[in-house]
Amino acid sequence: xxxxxxxxxxxxxxxxxxxxFSPLEAERLVALKIRYDRGxxxxxxxxxxxxxxxxxxxxxxxxx
Length: 64
Hints:
The chain is mainly alpha-helical. It has helices at 4-7, 9-18, 23-37, 46-58. It has one domain (4-58). Helix 2 packs across helix 3 (23-37).
């Protein structure tokens, strides 16, 4: 979504909903993008990555 700031957060959320995201997911993704652009996010730690991989396996998104 390279034109995020051109179309604005509301339009970006709308486009995400058109791509199949739920309204809540779309709003969360837009909020995450805003936080990322502001530099408010940190690099994930090894534990973060391990936890995410475990979540993927538990939810059938990745075979272990």
